[in-house]
């Protein structure tokens, strides 16, 4: 079947084609409304709102302990929220999972010994009401060549693609991936994302968490940054970079003092490494003019902030325990205000 046809079948316009016993289509694949989860005194997720329309690929970013895995577990119905509402395709997550509409690849999970890749995928597919044909699953996951190999004898990257195939076997419309490429080498990561894009091109919805910001930038239509269990930013990568990250202005101090740089127009943070100063600016034109007036333009460079810069501006380093008390919801204006916060000096090490 052609991709376009399959995508059309999965559209809200064609509810009858969704498979035996599936609940009627809803426009949203994912709906989380004011969802919170506490573990004793730790508030891991704190009033999270997230709507994902069908067909979108969304990356969930956040520092260690930000609440990503907890959010994904609640979304999949594996963990009950302390409060709030979780719906997948307009129904309870357990129902969507039972109907095969959701596939997941979580952080844990060991391969079953002594079965081949094809046998495993066939077995998993047989447990769903309307599975994807095994050959199609193997092709999407890039496992044609490995179909006859034992799953417990594969490399880490190959095993990860098998886990992806297992998540695909029920022909889900939504796939949830928790740090899917951790510990994979560059080639294995590339192969994995190619497989994921083949799946997404069929009109499916993808939600993945990652610490590799470049992967999010390259593979997601939309990025949701979580900080202390809340949404700190939500939008296309370019928009987040532009509105949150601002620009980076770097120049050689040439022996001049760095005092006062933080007070220049537009400057929101200052880093000095040896003789090189790096300023983050929300108005690079004004910053450069002011530097020119100081005569500080040796080896001047102006560049848009990377997603990593924006991410660092948005998230708080976990130097202390995660929040144990409710904090005010972060609005768009609050997000903008946070741009003014200096980058914590240790922040670069805190993200991979
Ligand atoms: N089962 C648990 N019991 C107690 N606290 C937990 C439990 N699971 C998670 N937490 C705490 O909840 C917070 C959020 O954890 P979570 O695993 O959701 O974060 P994460 O963003 O997925 O982190 P990472 O990037 O390190 O995987 C952390 O402070 C963590 O220590």
TrEMBL record:
Compartments in which it is found: Cell membrane
Molecular function terms, GO-annotated: ATP binding; ATP hydrolysis activity
Topology versus the membrane: Peripheral membrane protein
SUPFAM superfamilies: P-loop containing nucleoside triphosphate hydrolases
Endpoints of the signal sequence: none
GO process annotations (BP): response to antibiotic
UniProt KW keywords: Antibiotic resistance, ATP-binding, Nucleotide-binding, Transport
Cellular component GO terms, alphabetical: plasma membrane
Keyword ATP-binding: yes
Biased composition (Low complexity): 321-341
InterPro entries: AAA+_ATPase, ABC_transporter-like_ATP-bd, ABC_transporter-like_CS, ABC_transporter_ATP-binding, P-loop_NTPase
Region (Disordered): 1-20, 321-352
Highest taxon of the lineage: Bacteria
Pfam family membership, one: ABC_tran
ABC transporter domain: residues covered: 30-253
Membrane-spanning ranges: none
Name of the protein this chain belongs to: ABC-2 type transport system ATP-binding protein
Organism, as annotated: Streptomyces zagrosensis
Phylogenetic lineage: Bacteria, Bacillati, Actinomycetota, Actinomycetes, Kitasatosporales
């Amino acid at each position: 079947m052609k991709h376009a046809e399959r995508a059309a079948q999965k559209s809200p316009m064609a509810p009858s084609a969704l498979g035996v016993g599936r609940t009627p289509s809803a426009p949203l694949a994912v709906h989380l409304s004011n969802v919170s989860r506490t573990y004793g005194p730790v508030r891991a997720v704190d009033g999270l709102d997230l709507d994902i329309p069908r067909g979108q690929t969304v990356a969930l970013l956040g520092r260690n302990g930000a609440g990503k895995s907890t959010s994904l577990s609640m979304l999949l119905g594996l963990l009950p929220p302390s409060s709030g509402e979780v719906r997948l395709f307009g129904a309870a997550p357990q129902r969507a999972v039972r109907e095969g509409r959701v596939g997941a690849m979580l952080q844990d999970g060991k391969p079953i010994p002594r079965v081949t890749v094809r046998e495993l995928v066939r077995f998993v597919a047989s447990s769903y009401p309307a599975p994807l044909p095994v050959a199609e699953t193997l092709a999407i996951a890039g496992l044609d060549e490995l179909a006859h190999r034992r799953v417990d004898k594969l490399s880490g990257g190959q095993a990860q693609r098998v886990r992806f195939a297992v998540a695909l076997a029920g022909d889900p419309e939504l796939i949830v991936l928790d740090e899917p490429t951790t510990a994979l080498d560059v080639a294995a990561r590339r192969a994995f994302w190619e497989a994921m894009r083949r799946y997404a091109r069929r009109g499916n919805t993808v939600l993945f968490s990652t610490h590799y910001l470049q992967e999010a930038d390259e593979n997601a239509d939309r990025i949701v940054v979580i900080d202390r269990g809340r949404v700190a930013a939500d939008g296309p990568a370019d928009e987040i970079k532009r509105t949150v990250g601002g620009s980076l202005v770097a120049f050689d101090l040439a022996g001049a003092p760095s005092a006062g740089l933080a007070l220049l127009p537009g400057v929101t943070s200052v880093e000095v490494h040896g003789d090189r100063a790096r300023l983050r600016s929300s108005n690079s034109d004004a910053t450069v003019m002011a530097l020119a007036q100081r005569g500080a333009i040796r080896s001047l460079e102006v560049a848009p902030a990377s997603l990593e810069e924006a991410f660092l501006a948005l998230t708080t380093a976990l130097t202390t325990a995660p929040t144990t008390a409710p904090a005010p919801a972060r609005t768009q204006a609050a997000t903008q205000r946070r741009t003014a916060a200096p980058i914590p000096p240790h922040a670069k090490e805190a993200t991979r």
